[in-house]
Amino acid sequence: MAEFAGKVAFITGAAHGQGRAVALALAEEGANIVAFDVAKNLSYPAYTFGSSGELDSLKEAIEALGTRCLAIAGDVRNDADISRAVEQTMSDFGRIDLLFNNAGICAYGLAHELQEEEWDAMLDINLKGAWLVARRVIPVMMEQKSGVIINNSSIAGLRGMGRLSHYAASKWGLVGLTKSWAIELAHYHIRVISIHPTGVNTPMNDGLAALEGTTTQAIAERSAGNLLPIPWVEPDDVAGMVLYLASDKARYVTGSQFVLDAGLLTR
Asked: Residue 261: what are its φ and ψ, rounded to 5°?
């Protein structure tokens, strides 16, 4: 039997990149998926985000695997969008077993040169957005007395990185949320974990490279500098870690930070 048969996973930032890989991997293991994505470009950062077409194609790919998918366009900064998505999830599936807080942005800028609206966008999407989604999902998990929340942080959530102070601040904040929620929710058998990938080979790299007038290879090397001789890990590597942490194999893992860094922190 598929490991996640009958389970329901709510995934933000699902249209492409890491969110899409996790959605497909869970669906292959029998999970029903709620794919939540802004599905349009934003003013900041000025690169290409997941699209409505990608969200639709993800739904088709998941349903071709024999499970169900709700594809919902919405912004993690908008409580009305989130509430609508959670209500639709409960109406269709009646439960939420996994929340993968994955929606996020990245952009470069020296701290003293950042504009206030750039700082606010970074923190609102990467950090506040995770809280806004979780506060609508947590009561569902409390009622069913089970659930897993995985916050997608970054290696930048465990170390400083030049020209990424607003990004690092948002990702460090996710560690604080993770540890605090783990304490608050343990009584309800809800586990909370943060994951910390090094650079990941996603469309975000292409967008950052275009904004910086450089190559994706240079972006990867600037952001990481991995010990293993690779520029980045793949979205499927992240998906494998999420599947493990969401499974019963990790049933006693909570409040922890799981690193997929190709040795970067060893340097």
From this structure: -115, 5
Under 8 Å between Cβ of 90 and 12: no
Residue 106 within any structural domain of the chain:
yes
Bridge partners, residue 12, by sequence: 36
Structure tokens at 162: 């030049």
pTM: 0.98
Within-domain flag for 115: yes
**Residue 250 in tokens:** 């990790």
Distances from the Cα of 221 to the Cα of 57, 68, 134, 232, angstroms: 31, 38, 33, 8
Q: Confirm whether 167 is a catalytic residue.
A: yes
- Give which of 169, 175, 177 is closest to 119, Cα–Cα: 169
* Structural domain span for residue 110: 8-266
Nearest to 243 by CA among 132, 124, 100: 100
Contact 50, 103 (CB under 8 A): no
pLDDT at 111 over 80: yes
- The phi and psi torsions of 235 (rounded to 5 degrees) equal -55, -35
> What percent of the chain shows pLDDT beyond 90?
94
- Which range (65-69, 70-74, 163-167, 227-231) has the least confidence? 227-231
**Position 175 pLDDT exceeds 70:** yes
| Per annotation, catalytic residue among 44, 47, 108, 167 | 167
Q: What is the CATH number of the domain that holds 79?
A: 3.40.50.720
Could you give the number of structural domains in the chain?
Answer: 1
Q: Which segments within 32-155 are labelled E, that is strand?
A: 32-37, 69-73, 98-101, 147-152
- Residue type, position 237, single letter: D
